[in-house]
């Protein structure tokens, strides 16, 4: 029996949720600590994390796990595991996600998949 499953294609109309990526930066001046700088903005598609995605966050104590897909930024933005992101969606208001895993999607190399784990922000 030959398998003919074709995964659904992601089009521009599916990318509706704004996502902003931030990078940790050292505070300027004599006061120690870190802040964060906005480094990239895109529109993404949110979807429930698969069991494979959940393996990437198994060692964290995060309240929320999220997988997003957006157009691959090429040289405009080089994602790092130390980056954090926020999605502009009511369900995840006040939650900052840490990047746990990122890779081009398996079916379309022009799209990037990011798995994040996050907790509600204090304050």
Topology record:
Elements (H helix, E strand, L loop, with lengths): L16 E10 L7 E14 L3 H6 L7 E8 L12 E4 L7 E10 L6 E10 L3
Antiparallel strand pairs: 1-2, 1-4, 2-3, 3-6, 4-5, 5-6
Quick take:
The chain is mainly beta and 123 residues long. 5% of the residues lie in helices and 46% in strands.
Explain this structure:
With 123 residues, this protein is mainly β. It has a domain at 44-89 and 110-123. 5% of the residues lie in helices and 46% in strands. The protein has one helix at residues 51-56, and strands at residues 17-26, 34-47, 64-71, 84-87, 95-104, 111-120. It has a 6-stranded antiparallel β-barrel with strand order 1-2-3-6-5-4. Strand 4 and strand 5 form a beta hairpin. The radius of gyration is 16 Å and the shape is globular. The N and C termini lie far apart (57 Å). The relative contact order is 0.23. The mean pLDDT is 87.
Q: Walk across the major sheet and give the strand order.
A: 1-2-3-6-5-4
Structural class assignment: mainly beta
Spell out the helices and strands N to C.
EEHEEEE
Spans where pLDDT lies below 50 across 5 or more residues:
none
Radius of gyration: 16 Å
Helical stretch tally = 1
Main sheet makeup:
6 strands, antiparallel, barrel
Overall shape: it is globular
Percent helix among the residues?
under 10%
Query: What is the overall pLDDT average?
Result: 87
Number of strands: 6
The termini sit apart by 57 Å
Organism: Salinicoccus halodurans
Protein name: Phage head-tail adapter protein
Notable characteristics:
globular; mainly beta; single chain; 6-stranded antiparallel β-barrel; 123 residues; 6 strands; 1 helix; Phage head-tail adapter protein
């Amino acid at each position: 029996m030959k398998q003919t499953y074709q995964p659904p294609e992601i089009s521009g109309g599916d990318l509706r949720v704004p996502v902003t990526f931030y990078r940790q930066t050292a505070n300027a001046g004599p006061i120690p600590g870190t802040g964060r700088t906005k480094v990239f903005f895109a529109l993404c598609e949110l979807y429930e994390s698969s069991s494979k995605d959940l393996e990437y966050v198994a060692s964290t104590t995060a309240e929320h796990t999220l997988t997003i897909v957006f157009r691959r930024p090429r040289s405009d933005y080089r994602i790092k595991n130390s980056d954090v992101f926020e999605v502009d969606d009511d369900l995840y208001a006040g939650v900052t996600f840490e990047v746990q895993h990122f890779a081009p999607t398996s079916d379309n190399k022009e799209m990037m998949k990011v798995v994040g784990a996050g907790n509600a922000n204090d304050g």
